[in-house]
Design goal:
Helix 5 links the parallel strand 4 and strand 5. By secondary structure, the protein is an alpha/beta fold. It has a domain of 196 residues: Rossmann fold. It is 44% helix and 16% strand. Helix 1 crosses helix 7, helix 2 packs parallel to helix 4 and helix 4 packs parallel to helix 5. It is built from eleven helices and twelve strands. It binds NADP nicotinamide-adenine-dinucleotide phosphate (NAP). The site of NADP nicotinamide-adenine-dinucleotide phosphate has 27 residues, from helix 1, helix 4 and strand 4.
Length: 294
């Protein structure tokens, strides 16, 4: 029996990942740490805590994920997303643990115009993307069999996400303005959790792109949320990104090519629209137990 440690266990992905790991690795002990147990910004403590636990696998889903917040607070973004990853990697080295790091489509600038491959050159447009890319470099430099899983546009039960934001706005307004010029693949944290388990089981190493199938703009995503949720009295209006005037720039097109994941695991994630229907069905059933504020 081995130990699998998830860091960032109380986050949106972490809370779906833990139960999935328990199903996929029934013979292993699955442990979850978050801010209460560890602060990955602290180098010495992080290394020592990991060494004391001596896990075989560490999955780092802890991050400073507020993209505009990162732009305003660059130092903190690098402390958590880059240096935090470095400290975990150094701890992992002490016990020979495999490291799995969740990264982002925001390492790309969106100018390719066709789905991104793992070997395409990154070029982040914002601090969040830069700090996550530096985290990737630490995994590559400091660990032997490191696994980097880039994903995008997450939604799930337990976190602040676009689906909750649209449902909330629909309760307050009759017209909502949504960006039409950013294209990506909405990804359900439950599906992603299964994908992470599959890659770990297949002993995946290096970079993998993982997202639900298909792609859309935020505007089309919002339209589908409203329609699948049966909300008809609210109109979504398409706007350009610049009209929002947000601190962080975002790629206009960050769709992934997921052929490497398919080749390695033998399957691909279902289309995002199916995943969204499932998620909304769960909300309707009342099985969404609040989680963190959205
Ligand atoms: N959300 C997306 O759309 C998206 C897209 C692409 C990639 N990703 C990546 O996927 C992973 C999971 O994202 P998520 O949306 O689940 O993130 P999340 O909900 O923000 O969860 C991150 C967790 O990490 C914790 N954390 C923050 N700083 C920490 C520190 N110094 N030490 C220990 N724990 C700390 C947070 O605690 P507090 O809440 O108390 O700060 C939170 O519980 C991240 O690596 C993220 O970069 C996310």
């Amino acid at each position: 029996m081995g130990k699998i440690l998830v860091i960032g266990a109380q986050g949106m992905l972490g809370r779906d990942l833990l139960p999935e790991l328990r199903v996929s690795f029934p013979d292993d002990e699955i442990l979850g740490w978050d801010m209460e147990e560890i602060d990955i910004r602290m180098e010495k403590e992080t290394i020592e805590q990991i060494e004391a636990l001596y896990p075989q696998i560490i999955i780092n889903v802890a991050a400073y994920t507020d993209v505009d917040g990162c732009e305003r607070n660059e130092e903190e973004a690098f402390r958590v997303n880059a240096e935090g990853m470095k400290h975990i990697a150094l701890g992992a080295r002490r016990c020979g643990a495999k490291v799995v790091y969740l990264s982002t489509d925001y390492v790309f600038d969106g100018k390719k115009g066709e789905p991104y491959l793992e070997e395409d050159s990154p070029h982040p447009l914002n601090i969040y993307g830069e700090s996550k890319l530096k985290g990737e470099h630490y995994v590559q430099e400091l660990t032997k069999e490191g696994l980097i899983i880039r994903t995008q546009w997450l939604f799930g039960k337990y976190g602040k996400n676009f689906v909750y934001a649209i449902l909330k706005q629909a309760q307050e307004k009759e017209v909502i303005s949504i960006v039409k010029d950013q294209i990506g693949s909405p990804t359900y944290t439950r599906d992603l959790s299964k994908a992470i388990c599959a890659l770990v089981q297949k002993r995946g190493q290096g970079i993998f792109h993982v997202a639900n199938g298909g792609f859309c703009s935020w505007f089309v995503f919002a339209q589908k949320i409203l329609s699948y949720a049966g909300i008809h009295g609210v109109k979504a209006i398409p706007i350009a990104s610049e009209e929002l005037d947000r601190p962080a720039r975002r790629p206009s097109y960050s769709v992934f090519n997921t052929a490497k994941f398919l080749k390695t695991t033998g399957w691909n994630l279902r289309p995002w629209s199916e995943a969204l229907k499932d998620f909304l069905f769960e909300i309707e059933r009342g099985s969404i137990p609040g989680g963190k504020e959205s």
